[in-house]
Amino acid sequence: MDIRSQIGVVFHLDKCIGCHTCSIACKNVWTDRKGAEYMWWNNVETKPGTGYPTQWENQEEYKGGWEKKGNSIVLRGAGKLKGLKNIFHNPNLPTIDDYYEPWTYRYEDLFTAPEGNDQPTARPVSLITGEPIEVKSGPNWDDDLSGSPDYARKDPNFKNLSATEQEAMFQVEKMVMFYLPRICNHCLNPACVAACPSGAIYKRGEDGVVLINQNKCRAWRMCVTACPYKKTYFNWSTGKSEKCILCYPRLETGQAPACMHSCVGRIRYLGVLLYDADRIHEVASTEESQLVDWQRDMILDPNDPKVIEEAVKNGVHFSIIEAAQKSPVYRFVKEWKLALPLHPEYRTLPMLFYVPPLLPILGTTDDDIYDTTTEGLFSTIEKTRLPIQYLASLFTAGNEGKIREVLKKMMAVRLHRRHITVGDMDPVLVRNALQEVQTPPDMADAIYRLTSLANFEDRFVIPMAHREEAIEMLESVFEEKGATGFGFRMAPERGL
After folding, report:
1. Same structural domain, 68 and 184
2. Which H helix or E strand runs over 444?
3. CB contact at 8 A, 96 and 259
4. What's this model's pTM, rounded to 2 decimal places?
5. How many domains does the chain have?
6. Residues ≥6 apart with Cβ < 8 Å to 116
7. SS3 372
8. Same domain, 241 and 360
């Protein structure tokens, strides 16, 4: 086993209120500068919807991620041959219109306009050209537009829903939406790293954060094409690519990333995961129906003595192992199996996981009578206003069974807690509900506490930084074997 450590993140979608505080915190810290105005390393999308950039999930157009070829995988729109052919003209890049042309307002016109009968206005001007523009779109332009024909109805995840099912979603009484916050997934099998001709993108050995070396970047922009989540951006001012760095300077000093620290809904969790790097290719190459399970299997039990022994041999510090043992991400992903990766079919093995939204499914309508009884226990899950198939398209590569498992467990926890706090539930029915999803009462209480009552230290278990030891270990391995651990191909430079 080649055991490595990775910072993992969980977003609990039932708790997101769509306030965009996370986006503004990230913007103020990292992308409030020339050339980065249109970048939103953290953005919050309304689903159903087309997202940012528009139609980013449509890989037939953007050619992002990996695709299975026989028993292996290849990049969809990048790689040695494809990259060489398109190195001077890349047809799969999103244009500025797919994001939006950033603008400001000519505020001086409000003060310098000559006296007249009309109220002076501040005209919008492009931050790229400086010329007046007509604003047609912007960041989060489709906020809350669940029924919009321009956004929600063009969601690529509807491709497997029949026209009747799609139309049913947009009836007023069934209309539904939820928020999907997105940052870079810092994948275990990042397509952006594999696609970069300059070798500028790399994955940090000590925590798995994916970064871009600005000194090596040559603006080929293959990383923009290769990232299926479109979380790599091109800075038109500096001529370099940029992306979310998971606020690693903050992590190294024990602070949570800016977007997570500012999260109003407390939907975000951060912790360490230990995984077997020897299985990356095997897992990424498996069948779509197995991707979620196999990715979970890669994540190792930090309490297992054998795992601890192998991790120490591979240079993982004891403090990181201890942090992994307390990780809320491990509990959501591996222990409770509630959190799922976004679009696992892209085969990048993302390390950002989502707890799907349960949504208001406890009540059903029958002959215009609103029924809130729970006699059927899980029967209402099949009647949810957001089709199971839609959520499966987002989080399980179409495997509806995995979505049902998660929703049933969340429902069982809700019923269990209602029985404890309100006392109007049949205890036999509650017990049966927990048994069906193999969740004992103490686990249900633990899920409830970490979901609803967790404080800052419970949600963010940040390991101590040991950059100096990682560098020394890598240099020693390089001297002995002519290669380095943690996925590096050459010894790291000190001070980087």
Report:
1. yes
2. helix 441-448
3. no
4. 0.90
5. 2
6. none
7. coil
8. no
Burial class of 442 by CB neighbour count within 10 A (0 to 12, 13 to 18, 19+) = exposed
Average pLDDT, the chain: 88
- Do 412 and 444 meet the contact criterion of CB atoms below 8 Å apart? yes
Q: What is residue 376's predicted lDDT score, i.e. its pLDDT?
A: 53
Predicted confidence (pLDDT) at residue 255 exceeds the cutoff of 50: yes
Residues 331 and 409 in one domain: yes
Q: Which residues of 135-151 are buried (b: 16+ CB within 10 A; e: fewer)?
A: eeeebbbbbebbbbeeb
For tokens 């890598």, the residue is 474
Which residues are CB-neighbours of 225 under 8 A, at least 6 positions away? 62, 63, 64, 77, 78, 90, 92, 93, 195
CB 63 within 8 A of CB 94: no
Q: What percentage of the chain carries pLDDT values higher than 90?
A: 67
Beta strand 3-12 with 352-355: parallel, antiparallel or unpaired? parallel
Instruction: Assess whether pLDDT exceeds 90 at residue 373.
Output: no
Encoded tokens for 463: 């390991």
Q: Does residue 447 contact residue 269 with C-beta atoms inside 8 Å?
A: no
Indicate the residue type of 72: S
Q: 284-305, pLDDT tens digit by residue?
A: 999 999 999 999 999 999 999 9
Q: Residue 49 belongs to a domain with what CATH number?
A: 3.30.70.20
215 and 328 inside one domain = no
Kindly list the distances between the CA atom of residue 81 and the CA atoms of 74, 85, 86, 197, in Å, as whole numbers in the listed order: 11, 6, 9, 11
Place of tokens 């409830």: 448
- The strand pairing partners of 243, in sequence order, are 232
C-alpha dihedral (364, 367, 369, 372), degrees to nearest 10: -30
SS3 labels along 56-104: CCCHHHHCCCEEEECCEEEECCCCHHHHHHCCCCCCCCCCHHHHCCCEE
Check whether residue 248 and residue 325 sit in a common domain: no
Q: Which domain holds residue 375?
A: 277-459
Is 340 inside any structural domain? Answer: yes
- State the burial class of residue 438 (Cβ atoms within 10 Å of its Cβ: 0-12, 13-18, 19+): exposed
